[in-house]
UniProtKB/TrEMBL annotation:
Protein name: Carbohydrate ABC transporter permease
Source lineage: Bacteria, Bacillati, Actinomycetota, Actinomycetes, Jiangellales
Pfam families to which the protein is assigned, alphabetical: BPD_transp_1
Organism: Jiangella asiatica
Entry keyword annotation includes Transmembrane: yes
Major localisation: membrane
Keywords: Cell membrane, Membrane, Transmembrane, Transmembrane helix, Transport
Length: 260
């Protein structure tokens, strides 16, 4: 109930009249005057908020796909192929994630401009995997080490190549880890602020993380009810999906941490 408190307050605030919200003597957690949907409708109809949501969804989906495309094979190779550089390479991947974005966005801006992707969401599709792939590979390395080698060896005895054994046997067993990677990569994409702000300025290309504060805060005017409505519209679906996948998400992180 304590964790749900901010969501309840946001939901109540989103439906309040201005006179109810700005009267200091009114209870902030209750409707002192009749509720209204005007501010929710303003958010959906009179701001580019639906565009922000669509941009966030498709960029997040592409980043997740790219992360899995590179992270799964890399993690499997580092975990299974006995090479002297595998351990240091895995540690180096994790340290890449620890580099603060503020140290990189100026140099990355030059790359984005050189590729002609400035003010386009494609710039984020290019940049975000540089954050998600290292840490997701590190997570999946630990999870791969938790799988017995006999699994793919038996598949190769049955006639599969190593690639076939990986695709048909190992990947299905990695599903909890894959769920953890999907949730992590998408959440990071949806919440990242610095790159989204530095690389994109047109409203039609903005993500939720930058579009909401820049479009609903105009000078010293704060559209509080619409801001809180955007919180609910974005957070509640993510919270529901996270709750449904919580068991596999926790299993992915804990099993990945045991052998990492």
């Amino acid at each position: 109930m304590v964790a749900a408190g901010p969501f309840v307050w946001s939901a109540v605030t989103a439906l309040k009249l201005n006179s109810d919200l700005y009267t200091a003597t009114n209870n902030p957690f209750a409707f002192n005057e009749p509720a209204t949907l005007d501010h929710v409708l303003f958010l959906v109809q009179d701001t580019p908020f639906p565009t922000f949501v669509v941009n966030t969804l498709w960029v997040g989906a592409l980043v997740v796909a790219i992360t899995l495309l590179f992270g799964l094979p890399a993690a499997y190779a580092l975990a299974r192929l006995d090479r002297p550089w595998a351990g240091p390479a895995g540690i180096a991947l994790f340290f890449v994630y620890l580099v603060p974005p503020t140290l990189l966005f100026l140099s990355l801006t030059r790359v984005v401009v050189w590729l002609g992707l400035q003010d386009s969401t494609w710039s984020l599709v290019l940049i975000y995997p540089t954050i998600t792939i290292p840490v997701c590979t590190w997570l999946l390395i630990g999870f791969c080490k938790g799988l017995p080698k006999d699994v793919e060896e038996q598949a190769m005895v049955d006639g599969y190549s190593r690639l076939g054994a990986f695709a048909r046997v190992v990947v299905p067993l990695l599903f909890p880890g894959i769920v953890a990677v999907v949730v992590f990569a998408f959440t990071l994409t949806a919440s990242e602020f610095i790159y989204a702000l530095a690389f994109i300025s047109p409203s039609a290309e903005k993500m939720v993380s930058t579009g909401v504060p820049t479009e609903l805060i105009r000078g010293d005017v704060f559209f509080w009810q619409s801001l809180q409505a955007s919180n609910i519209v974005v957070a509640v679906p993510i919270a529901l999906v996270f709750t449904l996948l919580l068991g596999r998400f926790v299993a992915g992180f804990t099993m990945g941490a045991v052998k990492g």
